[in-house]
Amino acid sequence: MKSEDYAWNSRERECYENGQVSLPSPYKLNILDDGQKRLELEQILVQLPQKQLAQWAMEHATRFIALIDIGGNLKKQQILTQVQEVFEGRLAEKVAAYELRQAGFLAQKLSQQAKSPVSKYAARVFAQAVATAHMRGHAIVSADYAVKVINLQSPDDMQAVISERKQQIELATEWLKSINEM
């Protein structure tokens, strides 16, 4: 794929052009995980252009929105709506990276105001998905935060982790098939 489709961020684009994209990427958080399933996911994600990667991340993140509790559903919905509008604007090339980053900071407020650890990490799944419209590397971090949520809901349950990774892989595979049909 063309490097400008692969990455909108100049640093990530340069790595792609120079063959310096290496998998698996390092973990940014401590989680109980199936490293092989994570690598399998990354091997699919690396094939998606950034726009579709960001769409995958947001679609994946929507499964966790119901777990976000900041004590007020109206405030939560206002933040989600505002952030998603900016996210969609970025994908449509109508919003600058700066505006998206500002929306990302707003999304982080969901995590900061969370009423429980599950809520906090569910909010981070969403915030990292938003950030994927700026830099590709946030996609795997969003997926890892989803695994963190699973770790909190089902401690030491590797089968639950594998099930989550399989859902992530299935959704990524659907996105990959959709771009191959274009």
What's the quick description here?
By secondary structure, the protein is mainly alpha-helical. It contains nine helices and no strands. It has one domain (34-180).
Properties at a glance:
182 residues; mainly alpha; 68% helix; 0% strand; globular
Describe the structure.
- The chain has one domain.
- It has helices spanning 3-6, 10-17, 35-45, 50-61, 73-91, 97-112, 117-131, 138-153, 158-180.
- Helix 4 packs antiparallel against helix 7 (117-131), helix 6 (97-112) packs antiparallel against helix 7 and helix 7 (117-131) runs antiparallel to helix 8 (138-153).
- The protein is built from nine helices and no strands.
- The mean pLDDT is 97.
- The longest helix is centred in the last third of the chain and has 23 residues, at 158-180.
- By secondary structure, it is mainly α.
